[in-house]
Each structure stands twice: as C-alpha cells, then as structure tokens.
C-alpha cells in the first residue's frame, strides 16, 4: 500500500493576502499611537528644559542678590522693575536684565525663552520702596514660555548685608 504525504513548499496566495491585510490593520492602528507617543516625549523634554532653565536662573539670582554688599546707592545702583545692578560682597558689579526673550547676567546669556522678568523692592515692613537705603527684600518674578508652555517662578530674597 502506498502512502502519499503532501509536502508544503510555500504559502498559498490567500494566506499571503490575509497576512498583509492583518499587518495593514495593525500598522493603521499603531501608527498614530506611535506618532502621539513621540510627540508627547518631545513635549515633555521641552517642558523639562524650560523648567530647568527657570529654576537655575532664579536660584542663581536669589543667591547673588542676597549677597549684595550693602543697600547703599553705591552698591545697589539700578533698581527698576525690569533690571537690577548691584555689587556683591567681593565688589563685582552684577546686572540682571531682560533683552527680548533672553535673560542676561552682566551681558551674558543666562536663560532663553523668558517672557517676563520683574523685580520689586520692599522695606522691612514688606511695603514697596524706591529708597535704596530702605530696601531689605527683593521680589523676583520670572516667566518663561516655549511652544505654548508657560512656567512661572517667583521668590523673595532677604538682603543679608542690609543695614
């Protein structure tokens, strides 16, 4: 008695069409999901970058402003709402200002994408003052914006060497 064994040497055309159809459906569903995931990753990275820049900038400003040598006109020479110029305890002149969307520290870029920088000067009672010798606190407000993401920080700095 002879036994016939059927050998499978390839795929049938219908099997290939079914596999291509299933893979097309999977790609159609996964494509937009993958695109969304990549865009979300980039947005998160930009958000972390702007957050980091803002925190580094306000931390450095806080540290340096607290070290103003004295609250005299010689050591705190510019007191505007958008700029501050002062001498630190080592006698170095430091200026913080905004040029367009760039935060400058003595003409050097400190942060980019800054939409606002504001300073307020307070006396010992917490009232706004324009008198240099009355300044005990400096309030700093910093807002950064990039790709419709806004990050704001503010702090109040006590002048350690004020009289």
**Ends apart, CA distance between termini:** 116 Å
Q: Provide the spatial order of strands within the biggest beta sheet.
A: 1-2-3-4-5
| Number of spatially distinct domains | 1
Number of DSSP helical runs: 1
- Beta-strand residue percentage: 25-35%
Question: In this structure, how is the largest beta sheet organized?
Answer: 5 strands, antiparallel
Low-confidence segments: none
From the alpha carbons, calculate the radius of gyration and give it in angstroms: 31 Å
Please tell me about this protein's structure:
There is one protein chain. The protein is an alpha+beta fold and 163 residues long. The chain has one domain (15-158). 33% of the residues lie in helices and 33% in strands. It has 1 helix and 8 strands, in the order αββββββββ. It has one helix at 13-66; strands at residues 76-79, 83-87, 93-99, 102-105, 108-111, 114-122, 137-146, 149-158. A 5-stranded antiparallel sheet has the order 1-2-3-4-5, with helices on one face. Strands 6-7-8 form a 3-stranded antiparallel sheet, with helices on one face. β3 (93-99) and β4 form a beta hairpin. It starts with 12 loop residues before the first helix and ends in a 5-residue tail after the last strand.
